[in-house]
Amino acid sequence: MDAKWCKQDKHNQFDCLIDFNDWLDGEEDLAEAKRVELSLDQFSYPSKALFAGDKNAYHGVLAEYRIQQMQKALSHTWLTDTCGDLHWYQKNQSRLIQLLDLIAKKEVVPFIGAGLSVNGGFPTWKTHLKAQGRTAGLNGAEVDELIDQGNYEEVIHQIEQQDYLETFEQELFDSFIHVNNVPESIMLLGVLFSDTLITTNYDCLLEHTYQTEFKCDVEVIDNREPNKKPDQKKISVIKLHGDIHSPQSCIMGKNQYDAAYGVGDIDLSLPLPKLLEFHFTTNSLLFLGCSLNNDRTVETFKKIKKQARADAKTLPIHYSIEQAPETEAEISVRNNELLKMGVAPIWFQPEQFDTIVDILKYAQHEMNYREAMTPLKKKK
Length: 380
Fold this sequence. Notes:
Blueprint (H helix, E strand, L loop, with lengths): L1 H7 L2 H6 L1 H8 L3 H9 L8 H8 L1 H19 L2 H8 L3 H18 L3 E5 L12 H11 L4 H9 L3 H10 L3 H12 L7 H9 L3 E4 L5 H8 L5 E5 L12 E5 L14 H8 L9 H12 L1 E5 L7 H15 L7 E6 L4 H13 L2 E6 L6 H19 L7
Helix pairs in contact: 5-6, 6-19, 9-10, 9-11, 13-19, 16-17
């Protein structure tokens, strides 16, 4: 009887919109003002009272909430203040909606960089390399200059030249083997994506999260067998540059990168570039915590894009949640650089890295909203 009543009364919609209901019942000033406006303060659960009593009003407040959340996630205030109008915010909005449509169709593969591991207790790669350079006795100022140029391979090459490779591998293991905590951004990935994830990170944060927090079976595919056929019944975590459990096999220095990607130019016939080509031409990638600057994976994507353009082949659109430069002129230049590579950036305010969580939260909320708005299928 209750189940039938719930279906007739569309209570499935209410159950799907838990984030909005919690907000309306919560302590934020805007929520409190809305409750006062709608005379809901006398109810223990204002959201439930509004849904049951006036669904039109409920959906009106929900629409306002969704707009507020999108504006927060997409750095509306900063972009409009910095650029003077809605030009870049509207591009953000359009790209996010495109991305959500693809997520809903399960056509997005997250590509995770080191930036998303920091809140899991791991050092940034820059910080780690500086510490490694110090251990190996390298000149600190020279190491800093190489790192500022994005020339990480050369730092590792110099460490190898000092005969500190074994020490490097041990310190790598010490720094990246333990998961101290699971950051919210990674938890949200677990909610949104349940098939394949790609990472350049060595740590085990992704597989740890899916195994312990979501009780999923996970298969790690690393650089030792990059073209292994994935098990369709498991979450696939593709670790392009190796797994911390086998530090001696990780791709770190120039010689290893040359062997994996080719000397001088990218060799798309090699297993690792071939794997990247498959995903770049088959799926829409979502780059998170990636710098997308001067590294071999970026050079691989550029070559794939150039080749596809020469062959008049249409590629999927890829997306990056990207820290915006400080000025509109710099945003324009960086936007062009990324689009030449086939990546549409979704900008967030400089240094506001928590905005990545806001965007992923918004994506989760919108998936819940779409589920709520989907009519229940009638039983045959």
